[in-house]
Design goal:
By secondary structure, the protein is an all-alpha fold. The protein has one domain. Helix content is 77%, strand content 0%. It contains 6 helices and no strands. Helix 1 packs antiparallel against helix 3, helix 1 crosses helix 6 and helix 3 packs parallel to helix 6. It starts with a helix and ends in a 5-residue tail after the last helix.
Length: 118
C-alpha cells in the first residue's frame, strides 16, 4: 500500500518516535548515577527507560518494509531483538545497556531517520 494514507501513517509514527526520543532524553538528563541508583527514584527511571525501549521498537515494527528499505544502514532486526529482550526476558536485562540505548542509540536512530528533535 502506498500513497497519501501510508505517508500520513509514517508521519504519525515518526512523530511518535520524536516524542519517545524526548522522553528518553529526559531520562538521560537525570544522569547515569540517578538512573542506576538503588533508590525508588532509580527504579522508576529504569522502568521508564525500559518502557521507552519497548515503545520505540513497537513503533519501528509498524513502519512499512518499503520505508525501512530506504534506510538499509539501520539495524532494524537488532531493534526488535532489544525490544524482545526487555519485554520478555526482563530478568536478564543489563541496566547499563538500556542506559546506552537511551543515551546514544535512540538519538542516533532519530538522527538517521531525520526526525526533528534528534
Amino acid at each position: 500500500m502506498t500513497g497519501e494514507g501510508e505517508h500520513n501513517r509514517i508521519a504519525r509514527r515518526l512523530e511518535d518516535l520524536a516524542r519517545m526520543g524526548a522522553l528518553a532524553a529526559g531520562i538521560v538528563g537525570k544522569g547515569k548515577d540517578a538512573y542506576l541508583d538503588d533508590s525508588l527514584d532509580g527504579q522508576i527511571l529504569r522502568a521508564a527507560g525500559r518502557e521507552q525501549v519497548v515503545e520505540v521498537a513497537t513503533v519501528v515494527e509498524r513502519l512499512p518494509d518499503s520505508f525501512k528499505a530506504e534506510y538499509p544502514a539501520i539495524e532494524w532486526v537488532k531493534i526488535q531483538r532489544m525490544r524482545n529482550m526487555v519485554a520478555h526476558h526482563y530478568d536478564r536485562v543489563q541496566d547499563d545497556f538500556v542506559w546506552e540505548t537511551l543515551r546514544a542509540r535512540i538519538p542516533e536512530l532519530l538522527k538517521d531517520l531525520g526526525v526533528d528533535g534528534a
